[in-house]
Amino acid sequence: MPQIEYVTLAHHAEAINGLLYLQGSGWTDLEQPVDADGTLGMLHLGIGVSITIGWNETNRSYPLTISVEHEDGEQLFTVEGTVEAGRPAGATPGADMRSVLAVSGEVQFGRPGGYVVRAFIGDSDGGSARNVSFRVHYPQGIVPGPPAASSGGGPGDFSL
Fold first, then answer.
1. What is the mean predicted confidence (pLDDT) over 76-105?
2. DSSP three-state, residue 99
3. Which has the closest alpha carbon to 49: 122, 133, 117?
């Protein structure tokens, strides 16, 4: 079964031609922007994932789920997709393949506290999981109003 090698957080993440590009990665704390009128602003969040796929597990699709949850278990969003790695020409027989992917988009955190990104590859019979946690803070003394209305952005505006 493929294994999730790591999950990392960034301000922006892209996966291009088998390479993972991260900007502003490696943090554990975020400050949620709040507009002057007290409404929540948008944050650009990137999630980078690296998966190793064994030689005998290539050329097959595997389901992948990435979710972001508040510490109380409330799910902010979930992204689902599939991962498949082929055997490139000239690959050493028996070698593992690495597949990287990125999730990047605009999000609002409706409340401060701890959050966790959960990545799971496989099915109900077994799989591999990795988690990374972070904390969201509001500016001191700010009690925000409801999230601002967005034009197509928001937690659902993520791509895999």
1. 92
2. strand
3. 117
